[in-house]
Amino acid sequence: MQYNITEINHLIRHRRSVFPNQFMAGKKIDDDIIKEILINAIWAPNHAHTEPWFFKVFCNKGLQTFANFQSELYKKESGTSFKENKYLKLQTQPLLASHIISIGMKRNADKHIPEIEEIEAVACAVQNIYLSVSAYGLGGYWTTGGVTYMNNTKSFFGLEEEDKLLGFFYIGYVAVASAVAKRKP
Ligand SMILES: Cc1cc2nc3c(=O)[nH]c(=O)nc-3n(C[C@H](O)[C@H](O)[C@H](O)COP(=O)(O)O)c2cc1C
């Protein structure tokens, strides 16, 4: 066998989401590791080789730019449902991460692949990110919270109107490990 299947099984079954409040706040991961993780992401299966993913990486001062963007957009868009604690969370939580990757689906120009398949391919890429983060001993999670589904987000994350923002992947060093999880058979 080419791979150590015991280790691969263990990696897949012990990968956990690690949330920002479990990170070593703001401790920076080497950019070269993030690049390797993103190379793994783009080896995901994708129908007709459309490679529909689009990632934008925020780190260092970019984390503050990200935090300002999402908190101010929330303030602008939320109107009467505005909540001060949500605004503060959007402003402060990104700074706990080392890197935040925005997850985009870029629609292929001739649209010969159904949109759902392009989204599915990006989800496969995100699973590659999850497993790679775990294999490096780092922590992270995919969030579709924050401004993911708000209006007026796309251009900031390098997307056009026909594309989709699918959320954000936060990555950091782990201070507090996630609890053991369960799955139904
Ligand atoms: C498409 C998608 C969206 C998610 N969005 C959120 C989110 O907005 N907030 C959150 O806390 N977790 C989010 N998660 C992470 C899940 O909470 C997590 O995967 C789940 O609790 C199972 O835990 P595990 O990843 O450790 O197996 C998301 C996961 C997926 C696949």
The amount of helix comes to 25-40%
Largest sheet strand order: 1-2-4-3
CATH domain class? Alpha Beta
Spell out the CATH superfamily. Answer: NADH Oxidase
Backbone structural class? alpha+beta
The radius of gyration over CA amounts to 17 Å
Low-confidence stretches: none
The averaged pLDDT comes out at: 97
Instruction: Give the termini distance in whole angstroms.
Output: 26 Å
Strand segment tally = 4
Number of helices: 5
Order of helices and strands: HHEHHEHEE
Biggest sheet, open or closed, and with what strands and sense?
A: 4 strands, antiparallel
SS strand fraction: 15-25%
Key features of this structure:
binds flavin mononucleotide; NADH Oxidase; alpha+beta; 185 residues
What does this protein structure show overall?
The protein has a single domain (5-172), classed as 3-Layer(aba) Sandwich (NADH Oxidase). It contains five helices and four strands. It has helices spanning 5-14, 31-41, 61-78, 84-92, 115-135; strands at 53-59, 99-105, 139-143, 164-172. A four-stranded antiparallel beta sheet has the order 1-2-4-3. The radius of gyration is 17 Å and the shape is globular. The model has no long low-confidence stretch (mean pLDDT 97). Flavin mononucleotide (FMN) binds at residues 16-17, 141-145, 167, 178, 181.
